[in-house]
Amino acid sequence: MSTLNKLAAADEPSVLEAVSDIAKRKVLAVQEYARLTARALWNVFTQPRYTADMLDQMDIIGVGSLPIVLLTGFFIGAVMVLQTSQQFERFGQTALTGDVVAIALVRELGPTITALLVAGRNASGIASELGSMVVTEQVDAMRAMGTDPIRKLVTPRVVATILTVPLLTALADLIGMIGGFLVSFMELRLNPVQYWTRAVDALSFGDLMQGFTKPVVFALIISSVGCYQGLTVRGGTQGVGRATTEAVVVSSVFVLVANFFITRIMLFIF
Amino acid sequence: MHCAYNGWVSVATPATDSPVVSYRDIRIGFDEGEVLRGVSFDVHERETKVLVGETGTGKTLLLKMAAGLVRPNSGRVTVLGHEVSAMPEQELLDFRRQLGVVFQEGALFDSLSVRENVAYRLIEEGADLEEVENRVREALRFVEMEHAIEQLPGELSGGMRRRVSIARALISRPPIVLYDSPTAGLDPVTAQTIITLILRLRDAYGVTALLATHRIQDAFALANFRFDAQQQRVVPSATNGAGSEESRRTSFLVLRDGAVYFTGDQYAVRDSRDPYLQRFLV
Question: In chain A, which residues have their Cβ closer than 8 Å to the Cβ of B99?
Answer without folding.
Answer: 144
